[in-house]
Design goal:
Layout: E1 12-16, E2 21-23, E3 31-37, E4 40-44, H1 47-50, H2 55-59, E5 62-67, E6 72-73, H3 75-80, E7 86-89, E8 93-99, H4 102-111, H5 113-133, H6 136-165, H7 170-179, H8 183-208, E9 216-219, E10 224-226, E11 234-240, E12 243-247, E13 250-255, E14 260-261, H9 263-268, E15 278-281, E16 285-291, H10 295-301, H11 303-325, H12 330-339, H13 344-363, H14 368-396
Length: 397
Amino acid sequence: MAETPLNAREAVVREYSPGELLCRQGAVADRMFLLKAGAIRATVVTDKALVEADEDRLRRGHEVEVTRQPVLVGLEGALLGHYLTSLVAAETSVVVEIPGDTRAVMSLVGDKPEIGLALARVLARRLMSANKSLGSVQRTASRFMRDLQGLCTDFCNLVQRIGEDAGGEDDVIRALSAAKRTWAYNCGESGGAEVARNTRVLMARVVDDRMMVGKQHRLKAGDLLCRKGDPGNSVYLLVSGRMSVRIGNEVFGTVRPGETVGELGVLLGEAEPKRMADIVADEPSVVGVIPNDAFPDLVRGQPKLLINLCRMMCLRVKSFEQLSADSDDVLRAVAARFAGQGGGFEADAGNLRDAIERLVEENQLPLQMELEQLTVMIERWRAKMDELAEKIPATSR
């Protein structure tokens, strides 16, 4: 990742003293940093601590990694538009600062897919490291985070789908416009719904173009895509439908259209990686199957797909590293994030359901299925928040 086609004439060489900040977590990512000499620490604090954190607090944040090789850092932040971590000089360091925003990084990966693959491998290592550093309570919080964030994503996707099918119905468009201004919708969108939608569309095109002939599965509800312990010899990308990640009788997560399974083993080059869970179709689903040895060539030939995969991994890295940084009261932090918004999801989904019910009654619009989906989402949200509330006192005694 040391080579870069970005405009070298705009680059600035700087020397940083030990402890000096190169960039602040959460700040707009407008530069990348090419380390020439020395070492850079990446640290992270929780979003709650970040609001009032001074430079000393950022330096003392949870250490994510230390970079000593000539490498381009800050690239992942530019893909999301803001830095995921604070970068701190671990010793006297010489750094080339290269201006570049999200568009520049996307262009860079499009022109040089190998840089995107290298970034994906870096993100895979960070994901594995962050996952290993989680304690039992943090792992529990991670499951709640995924479930609640996933429901926001489902809400966002449902609003989008109703809009695509609205057929110019002004009353429906007005109801959806109100829904798009809500906390639940924006939380879902910022959680990767848009990235996943774009990835799903790109993958569907690959399948339609017959580049994946013989490498796609069509599953019925209840079918197993793979079992725990199976060889991890392919990457799966869900084109349509929904799948759950299960170990025994427990559900550990949901795979939504545009999301991948098994990419970490391919990117990290693990020797004969094994599946860590059962993957079961919850409804009729179409899955693109990319053999391990074909994955690099596919993403090189589909740079937009590679960019979206990297962006989804950035979101997962951000979530995992935030959990790693909060070791004290992480379940309360999850509850505060999803319940501290003046009602948040339940009110937003309920208001949309009420608006659609009126439209169905007044105009006989065919939206009964959408009403049922909103009702199920609200019930799942209540059940998940009740379960979270029950666990918080047990971890605080």
